[in-house]
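re: that chain from earlier
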Amino acid sequence: MFDKDLTVVESVVPVTSSQDSPSSTYPSKGSITITFDDNGQFKVNGTKKDPLVNLYVIPGASKLRRILRDTNELIVCPGVYDGLSARVAMELGFKGMYMTGAGTTASRLGMADLGLAQLHDMKTNAEMIANLDPYGPPLIADMDTGYGGPLMVYKAVQQYIQAGVAGFHIEDQIQNKRCGHLAGKKVVDLDEYLTRIRAAKLAKDRMHSDIVLIARTDALQQHGYDECIRRLKAARELGADVGLLEGFTSKEMAQQAVHDLAPWPLLLNMVEHGAGPVITTKEAEQMGFRIMIFSFASITPAYLGIRAAFRRIQTDGIAGIPEGYGPKKVFEVCGLSDSVRVDNDAGGSGFKNGV
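^ sequence. v structure.
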């Protein structure tokens, strides 16, 4: 990224005219004007070009921002909560992933999603997932309420950026929060919510980061639809990149939100058997949503699968794992071949006899 003092750069270099003959001794002279804007975009003689963020590895935040900016596709992100679930998402070729706060709380703390996971828990988990594969899909992560006042929100965003997170959502629930699909939610007043958005925007701007700021509101239960739209519009005015209205009660409401906030991109959190209706990826794309996350897409199937295997141990004396899914298969999903290749290419001998 460029310092704000260098938003406009001009360079004059010699160029060869297309009308010059190959044998011309002195090429004609011309000027090339390169103009940078605040978003890192640049134009060469008025033609927009993509910024060269890195010649080899494009940060996840830049990947996510480019997809939002340059395409109209729905970014489908299965909810992941640990390294294995993230590896499965990558194996299947998803273009994005979502680190669920509920899944992180359940897997790391063994507790319900009642605001018990704090910044260290969430950032540490997100950092591990985001860095499993530098060429992998961008990771969107839950940031709950920001874990405190403006200074804590600022610190949280800094740490998420440094962890390699591509995008995050921050919400307006009170600090003693709960899962967005439980009853009894309460939210802070609009001014306090916007303080969180300002602090988050300030952190990303000062770090010149492409991280995508997603403004989430949980005000529907307590204050109704119109207040949700008012809050999201206010967050948009402060520079939030994407909006999230949690807990739609009908498909019609979801469609209305896309219409009322257009052309601002919206994220849909699809929680089956939660507070709202089941909306498929095809329906969400037709409605005009830009990102769709499935918060419980791995944690619930994991619970069901683990419970079934444990029950078979009790009843049959064996877990009953299907043939072909022994240790090596799971390790392959977790990068076994790549690890062996690195050791071999470095001249190591740890795997010369295979695995």
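Confidence is low (pLDDT under 50) at residues 1-29.
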